[in-house]
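INTERNAL TRANSFER SHEET
From: sequence group
To: structure group
Subject: Permease

Please process the attached sequence and return the structure record in the designated field. Keep the field labels unchanged so the import script can parse them.
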Amino acid sequence: MPSRRPNDGRKALWLAVLFILIAAAGLTYIKWWPYYGKAIKAITEHTIGSSILTGGQEAIPNPSWQSAWDYAVVYYKAVWKAAVFGILLGSLVQVLLPANWLMRVLGQRTFRSTVWGGVASLPGMMCSCCAAPIAAGLRKKNVSVGAALAFWLGNPLLNPATLIFMFFVLGWDFTLLRLAFGLAITFGVSYLANRFAGEASVSEDKLPAEALAPAQADHRPFLVRWGRSLGTMLLNVIPAYILAVLLLGAARAWLFPTLGEGAGTTVLALLIFAIAGTLFVIPTAAEIPIVQSFLSLGYGGAAAGALLVTLPTVSLPSLLMLRRAFPARVLWLVFGSVVASGLLSGLIGAFLF
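Return from structure group:
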């Protein structure tokens, strides 16, 4: 194994510190401080806004180009800062963080690596689409399937701010249900995906030299390496993101049909909502006013329980963004697991709420 100069180690440390500072500054501006104000609103008013599904109307608009455009405008207005920041972090993680550290902590198929991936997601508080580029960047650094999935899924499911909003808007019972399924999916499904992916777990003493070398072992200028990383990220993310959001925005009325009071408790309706919630795309915490509106319309606890789990976890755009980062069978496993979790959560909700 080639020797590493002391200067390389110091440079790797400073680059890692730079990444942490960028992440902390961006999250403070985009997530942490705004969520403080939203938490106050949830505590005092027991609401965080209206349902994004209806777009301020009494009912979900019929499928049309205008419906697609209107939803895209509202959606991107809510998420554009976090989406841009997610792409930025997804590119920077590939050039600033030391590969040897990532491989040692997050690169194994062990449950410990999966747990660390989930823990790392907690400060992010991002939706599935904004966290997806970072998960893709981690995979490019040879982070294990389980750890990268736990980071991606933990961002929306275990978001501390969302759980606080939910407690004061929907109540402790919905919050506890969400937390239970969030933990099971983030750590359980992610760890299972490690086995499902079929990747070999490599001990540190057998890692290739390029994996153990500091992140800056590539001696090309930093801007060149980052520019290439950012360009690849943009090509893989932006087209699928825009097209999928437009498609889902147009199809809202089909995905969430008006079934009438009490109809949401049928098995067919529960299956529809579980699949629709898994495919649909929403900003962070938008599932709370959606569930609140469904309850007010008399859909019952089954639909509410299903959407509570499925809406934030994944979406068609985020799955498409990660089509090159994870094996297809892993993404299908995640999709099926989220739908199944939504069905189970809906059944529990039918009895509890």
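Handover comment: Residues 6-45 form the longest helix (40 residues). The radius of gyration is 21 Å.
Transfer complete.
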